[in-house]
Design brief:
The protein is of the alpha/beta class and 303 residues long. It has an eight-stranded mixed β-sheet with strand order 3-2-1-4-5-10-8-9. The longest helix is centred in the N-terminal third of the chain and has 30 residues.
Protein backbone atom coordinates (compact mmCIF):
# COMPACT_ATOMS: atom_id res chain seq x y z
CA UNK A 1 0.00 0.00 0.00
CA UNK A 2 1.43 3.38 -0.98
CA UNK A 3 1.06 6.69 0.89
CA UNK A 4 -1.65 7.92 -1.48
CA UNK A 5 -3.75 4.81 -0.84
CA UNK A 6 -3.19 5.06 2.90
CA UNK A 7 -4.31 8.68 2.95
CA UNK A 8 -7.35 7.83 0.84
CA UNK A 9 -8.42 5.03 3.19
CA UNK A 10 -7.83 7.27 6.19
CA UNK A 11 -10.04 9.99 4.70
CA UNK A 12 -12.81 7.48 3.93
CA UNK A 13 -12.66 6.15 7.48
CA UNK A 14 -12.92 9.68 8.88
CA UNK A 15 -15.82 10.48 6.53
CA UNK A 16 -17.70 7.34 7.57
CA UNK A 17 -17.07 8.17 11.23
CA UNK A 18 -18.36 11.72 10.82
CA UNK A 19 -21.45 10.54 8.96
CA UNK A 20 -22.06 7.95 11.68
CA UNK A 21 -21.77 10.57 14.41
CA UNK A 22 -24.15 12.85 12.53
CA UNK A 23 -26.72 10.07 12.27
CA UNK A 24 -26.33 9.25 15.96
CA UNK A 25 -26.97 12.88 16.83
CA UNK A 26 -30.06 12.91 14.60
CA UNK A 27 -31.46 9.86 16.38
CA UNK A 28 -30.77 11.39 19.80
CA UNK A 29 -32.62 14.57 18.85
CA UNK A 30 -35.47 12.48 17.43
CA UNK A 31 -35.82 10.53 20.67
CA UNK A 32 -35.53 13.59 22.90
CA UNK A 33 -38.12 15.51 20.87
CA UNK A 34 -40.71 12.79 21.40
CA UNK A 35 -40.24 10.49 18.34
CA UNK A 36 -42.51 12.57 16.10
CA UNK A 37 -42.80 10.77 12.73
CA UNK A 38 -41.03 12.43 9.79
CA UNK A 39 -39.05 14.85 11.95
CA UNK A 40 -35.25 14.99 11.77
CA UNK A 41 -33.80 11.59 12.69
CA UNK A 42 -36.95 9.60 11.94
CA UNK A 43 -35.58 7.91 8.81
CA UNK A 44 -32.27 7.02 10.45
CA UNK A 45 -34.07 5.62 13.50
CA UNK A 46 -36.48 3.66 11.29
CA UNK A 47 -33.82 2.07 9.12
CA UNK A 48 -31.65 1.24 12.14
CA UNK A 49 -34.64 -0.64 13.55
CA UNK A 50 -35.34 -2.34 10.21
CA UNK A 51 -31.70 -3.40 10.01
CA UNK A 52 -31.96 -5.06 13.44
CA UNK A 53 -35.25 -6.73 12.46
CA UNK A 54 -33.72 -8.21 9.31
CA UNK A 55 -30.85 -9.66 11.37
CA UNK A 56 -33.26 -11.37 13.76
CA UNK A 57 -33.88 -14.85 12.34
CA UNK A 58 -36.50 -15.62 14.98
CA UNK A 59 -38.45 -12.49 14.11
CA UNK A 60 -38.17 -13.21 10.38
CA UNK A 61 -39.60 -16.67 11.09
CA UNK A 62 -42.53 -14.93 12.78
CA UNK A 63 -43.23 -13.11 9.51
CA UNK A 64 -42.68 -16.22 7.39
CA UNK A 65 -45.10 -18.27 9.48
CA UNK A 66 -47.70 -15.49 9.90
CA UNK A 67 -47.39 -15.48 13.67
CA UNK A 68 -48.28 -12.74 16.15
CA UNK A 69 -45.76 -9.90 16.27
CA UNK A 70 -44.29 -8.60 19.55
CA UNK A 71 -46.40 -6.01 21.36
CA UNK A 72 -45.71 -2.40 20.27
CA UNK A 73 -43.82 -3.64 17.20
CA UNK A 74 -43.00 -0.64 14.99
CA UNK A 75 -44.94 1.84 17.12
CA UNK A 76 -44.80 5.29 15.51
CA UNK A 77 -43.27 3.91 12.30
CA UNK A 78 -44.65 3.61 8.79
CA UNK A 79 -45.43 0.34 7.02
CA UNK A 80 -41.84 -0.26 5.84
CA UNK A 81 -41.17 -1.92 9.20
CA UNK A 82 -43.52 -4.78 8.24
CA UNK A 83 -43.09 -4.72 4.44
CA UNK A 84 -39.33 -5.38 4.45
CA UNK A 85 -39.34 -8.35 6.88
CA UNK A 86 -42.40 -9.79 5.11
CA UNK A 87 -40.55 -9.55 1.79
CA UNK A 88 -37.22 -10.98 2.92
CA UNK A 89 -38.86 -13.80 4.87
CA UNK A 90 -40.49 -14.99 1.61
CA UNK A 91 -38.02 -14.04 -1.15
CA UNK A 92 -36.72 -17.30 -2.70
CA UNK A 93 -32.96 -17.83 -2.48
CA UNK A 94 -32.89 -19.05 -6.09
CA UNK A 95 -34.33 -15.80 -7.46
CA UNK A 96 -31.33 -14.44 -9.36
CA UNK A 97 -32.84 -11.70 -11.54
CA UNK A 98 -34.94 -9.23 -9.58
CA UNK A 99 -36.93 -6.18 -10.63
CA UNK A 100 -37.52 -3.55 -7.98
CA UNK A 101 -40.60 -1.87 -9.45
CA UNK A 102 -40.75 1.39 -7.53
CA UNK A 103 -37.29 1.69 -5.91
CA UNK A 104 -38.12 0.20 -2.51
CA UNK A 105 -34.68 -1.43 -2.31
CA UNK A 106 -32.69 1.74 -3.03
CA UNK A 107 -31.30 2.21 0.50
CA UNK A 108 -27.82 1.17 1.63
CA UNK A 109 -29.11 -0.87 4.57
CA UNK A 110 -31.45 -2.79 2.24
CA UNK A 111 -29.09 -3.22 -0.73
CA UNK A 112 -26.48 -4.72 1.62
CA UNK A 113 -28.84 -7.39 2.94
CA UNK A 114 -27.51 -10.96 2.57
CA UNK A 115 -30.83 -11.88 0.90
CA UNK A 116 -29.76 -9.76 -2.10
CA UNK A 117 -26.14 -10.86 -2.31
CA UNK A 118 -24.98 -11.88 -5.81
CA UNK A 119 -28.36 -11.04 -7.36
CA UNK A 120 -28.90 -9.17 -10.60
CA UNK A 121 -31.08 -6.25 -9.52
CA UNK A 122 -32.82 -3.70 -11.74
CA UNK A 123 -34.45 -0.70 -10.06
CA UNK A 124 -37.19 0.87 -12.16
CA UNK A 125 -38.50 4.27 -11.06
CA UNK A 126 -39.71 7.49 -12.66
CA UNK A 127 -36.65 9.68 -12.05
CA UNK A 128 -33.14 9.59 -10.57
CA UNK A 129 -32.90 9.63 -6.78
CA UNK A 130 -30.24 10.81 -4.35
CA UNK A 131 -29.20 7.23 -3.55
CA UNK A 132 -27.28 5.40 -6.27
CA UNK A 133 -25.50 2.07 -5.81
CA UNK A 134 -24.00 1.41 -9.22
CA UNK A 135 -20.84 0.23 -7.42
CA UNK A 136 -22.93 -2.73 -6.22
CA UNK A 137 -23.77 -3.47 -9.88
CA UNK A 138 -27.32 -2.21 -9.43
CA UNK A 139 -28.92 -1.22 -12.76
CA UNK A 140 -31.31 1.74 -12.86
CA UNK A 141 -34.17 2.21 -15.34
CA UNK A 142 -36.09 5.49 -15.42
CA UNK A 143 -39.41 4.68 -16.99
CA UNK A 144 -43.11 3.97 -16.48
CA UNK A 145 -44.44 0.72 -15.00
CA UNK A 146 -47.26 0.89 -17.53
CA UNK A 147 -44.69 0.36 -20.31
CA UNK A 148 -41.75 -1.60 -18.93
CA UNK A 149 -38.83 -1.59 -21.41
CA UNK A 150 -37.88 -5.23 -20.75
CA UNK A 151 -38.48 -8.42 -22.75
CA UNK A 152 -41.11 -10.98 -21.76
CA UNK A 153 -40.44 -13.59 -19.05
CA UNK A 154 -37.20 -12.01 -17.82
CA UNK A 155 -37.33 -11.78 -14.01
CA UNK A 156 -37.31 -14.51 -11.37
CA UNK A 157 -38.91 -12.14 -8.86
CA UNK A 158 -40.52 -8.72 -8.95
CA UNK A 159 -40.81 -6.51 -5.89
CA UNK A 160 -43.48 -3.80 -6.03
CA UNK A 161 -43.99 -2.49 -2.50
CA UNK A 162 -46.06 0.64 -1.81
CA UNK A 163 -45.90 1.62 -5.47
CA UNK A 164 -49.03 0.42 -7.25
CA UNK A 165 -51.16 2.99 -5.41
CA UNK A 166 -49.21 5.80 -7.13
CA UNK A 167 -49.80 4.60 -10.70
CA UNK A 168 -51.91 7.12 -12.64
CA UNK A 169 -51.92 9.61 -9.74
CA UNK A 170 -50.11 12.95 -9.30
CA UNK A 171 -46.42 12.00 -9.41
CA UNK A 172 -45.14 15.46 -10.38
CA UNK A 173 -43.30 15.73 -7.03
CA UNK A 174 -41.13 12.79 -8.19
CA UNK A 175 -40.59 13.93 -11.77
CA UNK A 176 -40.79 17.73 -11.39
CA UNK A 177 -42.74 17.71 -14.64
CA UNK A 178 -46.34 18.87 -15.24
CA UNK A 179 -46.97 15.64 -17.20
CA UNK A 180 -46.78 13.80 -13.88
CA UNK A 181 -50.05 15.40 -12.75
CA UNK A 182 -52.33 12.56 -13.75
CA UNK A 183 -55.74 11.41 -12.59
CA UNK A 184 -56.03 7.92 -14.08
CA UNK A 185 -56.68 5.78 -10.98
CA UNK A 186 -57.45 2.61 -12.96
CA UNK A 187 -54.02 2.55 -14.61
CA UNK A 188 -52.70 0.25 -11.88
CA UNK A 189 -54.34 -2.54 -13.91
CA UNK A 190 -52.05 -1.79 -16.85
CA UNK A 191 -49.02 -1.82 -14.53
CA UNK A 192 -50.00 -5.20 -13.07
CA UNK A 193 -50.32 -6.67 -16.54
CA UNK A 194 -46.85 -5.37 -17.43
CA UNK A 195 -45.37 -6.89 -14.26
CA UNK A 196 -46.92 -10.23 -15.21
CA UNK A 197 -45.49 -9.96 -18.74
CA UNK A 198 -41.86 -9.56 -17.61
CA UNK A 199 -42.07 -12.26 -14.91
CA UNK A 200 -40.79 -15.75 -15.71
CA UNK A 201 -43.07 -18.79 -15.40
CA UNK A 202 -42.68 -19.94 -11.80
CA UNK A 203 -41.60 -16.42 -10.79
CA UNK A 204 -42.79 -14.48 -7.73
CA UNK A 205 -44.48 -11.09 -7.56
CA UNK A 206 -44.29 -9.40 -4.16
CA UNK A 207 -46.87 -6.63 -3.97
CA UNK A 208 -48.03 -4.34 -1.18
CA UNK A 209 -50.48 -1.43 -1.01
CA UNK A 210 -51.94 0.76 1.76
CA UNK A 211 -55.22 -0.93 2.61
CA UNK A 212 -58.56 -0.22 4.25
CA UNK A 213 -61.23 2.36 3.44
CA UNK A 214 -60.87 3.54 -0.15
CA UNK A 215 -59.75 7.11 -0.69
CA UNK A 216 -58.05 8.89 -3.55
CA UNK A 217 -55.58 11.30 -1.95
CA UNK A 218 -54.43 12.77 -5.26
CA UNK A 219 -50.82 11.70 -4.69
CA UNK A 220 -51.95 8.08 -4.32
CA UNK A 221 -55.04 6.03 -3.63
CA UNK A 222 -55.64 3.73 -0.68
CA UNK A 223 -56.83 0.31 -1.83
CA UNK A 224 -59.90 -1.44 -0.50
CA UNK A 225 -61.03 -5.02 -1.11
CA UNK A 226 -62.57 -4.12 -4.46
CA UNK A 227 -59.39 -2.54 -5.88
CA UNK A 228 -57.17 -5.28 -4.48
CA UNK A 229 -59.37 -7.91 -6.13
CA UNK A 230 -59.16 -5.98 -9.40
CA UNK A 231 -55.37 -5.99 -9.21
CA UNK A 232 -55.23 -9.74 -8.59
CA UNK A 233 -57.69 -10.44 -11.40
CA UNK A 234 -55.67 -8.21 -13.75
CA UNK A 235 -52.62 -10.37 -13.02
CA UNK A 236 -54.43 -13.30 -14.59
CA UNK A 237 -53.62 -16.97 -14.08
CA UNK A 238 -51.33 -17.94 -11.22
CA UNK A 239 -50.15 -21.06 -9.39
CA UNK A 240 -50.34 -19.59 -5.92
CA UNK A 241 -51.77 -16.56 -4.13
CA UNK A 242 -50.95 -15.60 -0.54
CA UNK A 243 -52.51 -12.59 1.16
CA UNK A 244 -51.16 -11.18 4.42
CA UNK A 245 -52.54 -8.13 6.22
CA UNK A 246 -50.94 -5.96 8.87
CA UNK A 247 -52.75 -3.30 10.88
CA UNK A 248 -51.46 -0.37 12.91
CA UNK A 249 -53.00 1.01 16.11
CA UNK A 250 -51.84 2.49 19.42
CA UNK A 251 -50.09 -0.81 20.20
CA UNK A 252 -48.04 -0.80 17.00
CA UNK A 253 -48.21 -3.15 14.00
CA UNK A 254 -49.85 -6.56 14.14
CA UNK A 255 -50.84 -9.28 11.69
CA UNK A 256 -54.59 -9.41 11.13
CA UNK A 257 -57.33 -10.17 8.60
CA UNK A 258 -58.58 -8.15 5.65
CA UNK A 259 -61.96 -7.72 7.37
CA UNK A 260 -60.28 -6.15 10.40
CA UNK A 261 -58.72 -3.52 8.12
CA UNK A 262 -61.88 -2.43 6.28
CA UNK A 263 -62.25 0.85 8.20
CA UNK A 264 -58.56 1.73 8.41
CA UNK A 265 -57.67 5.20 7.14
CA UNK A 266 -54.35 6.60 6.03
CA UNK A 267 -52.90 9.19 8.44
CA UNK A 268 -54.36 12.37 6.94
CA UNK A 269 -51.93 14.59 8.82
CA UNK A 270 -49.08 12.97 6.88
CA UNK A 271 -50.84 13.46 3.54
CA UNK A 272 -51.34 17.12 4.46
CA UNK A 273 -47.60 17.46 5.14
CA UNK A 274 -46.71 16.05 1.73
CA UNK A 275 -49.21 18.29 -0.03
CA UNK A 276 -48.30 21.51 1.77
CA UNK A 277 -44.65 21.03 2.69
CA UNK A 278 -45.50 21.87 6.28
CA UNK A 279 -43.02 20.88 9.00
CA UNK A 280 -44.19 17.94 11.17
CA UNK A 281 -44.77 18.74 14.83
CA UNK A 282 -46.29 17.28 17.98
CA UNK A 283 -49.39 19.43 17.47
CA UNK A 284 -50.07 17.83 14.07
CA UNK A 285 -49.46 14.14 14.81
CA UNK A 286 -52.44 11.86 15.51
CA UNK A 287 -52.85 10.39 19.02
CA UNK A 288 -51.85 6.90 17.82
CA UNK A 289 -48.68 8.27 16.19
CA UNK A 290 -49.56 6.66 12.86
CA UNK A 291 -46.82 7.63 10.40
CA UNK A 292 -48.57 6.68 7.13
CA UNK A 293 -50.90 3.74 6.37
CA UNK A 294 -52.85 2.15 9.21
CA UNK A 295 -53.07 -1.11 7.31
CA UNK A 296 -51.15 -2.73 4.50
CA UNK A 297 -51.98 -5.67 2.22
CA UNK A 298 -48.97 -7.85 1.31
CA UNK A 299 -49.58 -10.13 -1.67
CA UNK A 300 -47.37 -12.91 -3.04
CA UNK A 301 -48.31 -14.26 -6.47
CA UNK A 302 -46.49 -17.15 -8.16
CA UNK A 303 -47.13 -17.86 -11.85
Amino acid sequence: MNIKQALSISFLDILKFMLGKNQQNQVKKFLVSGKIPWTNGYQVYKFDLIKSILKDEKLLSTFAEKQTLPNHFGYGLDERCVEYPWLFSHLPENAQTILDAGSILNHEIIINQPHLKNKKIHILTLAPEENCFYQHKISYLYDDLRQIPIQNNYYDAIICLSTLEHIGCDNSHYTNEPAGQENRPQDFIQAIQELKRVLKPGGNLFLSVPYGKYKNHGLFQQFDRQLLTQAIQAFGDYQSLTETFYKYDKNGWQITTDQACEDCEYAQWVVNLWQTGQTPSKELVDPDYAAAARAVACIQLII
